[in-house]
Structures are given as structure tokens and as C-alpha cells.
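I am sending you the entry underneath: sequence plus C-alpha cells. Let me know what the C-alpha cell row says about the fold:
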Amino acid sequence: MAALDLLGRRWTLRILWELSRTPAGFRELQRRCEHMSSSVLSARLGELTEARLLALHDDGYHLTGLGADLVEALRPLNAWSRRWARETDTGAPDGSGG
């Protein structure tokens, strides 16, 4: 439940997703995350670092091994959510549009 609590916090998944692409410093990450407030970003980075999902290096924040494993574990959920978005975009439950 602690993991779900952490992942359910606003911006957490977006930060993990962004850092799965490339490491980033605070300002770059804030820019990538549509200029989220610095206080929220600071709080999330602290929480994710404390949870050992991120580590701060000279060139910015990186996913740790645990963080990379988490992103990999979330890939099926990402695939499902894309399918769900396609099927619900038409407004019909079966995707038929009518």
C-alpha cells in the first residue's frame, strides 16, 4: 500500500516517466513537467529519493535500479492505458462509435 500511496501522489508518475527517458536537473525536470511548482517538484523528488527510486548525481536526477525496475513494471499499465484511451475516445464502450 505504501508504494501505491507514493505512486498516486500528483506528478510522481510523470517525474518517473521523464527520468526514464534521460536524467535531468531540477530546472530541466520542472520544464519537462509543464512548469510544475518548485515546491511540489522538490517534495516529490525528496520522496522519490527517500524511497530509493531516484538518486541525485552531478548531472541531475537519475532512476536507481529500483526506479528503473518500477518503470519497467509499469509498461503493461501504460500499454493498457493507451488501448483504453483509443477505445473510449469514440464515446462508445466497445469502441464502435455508436
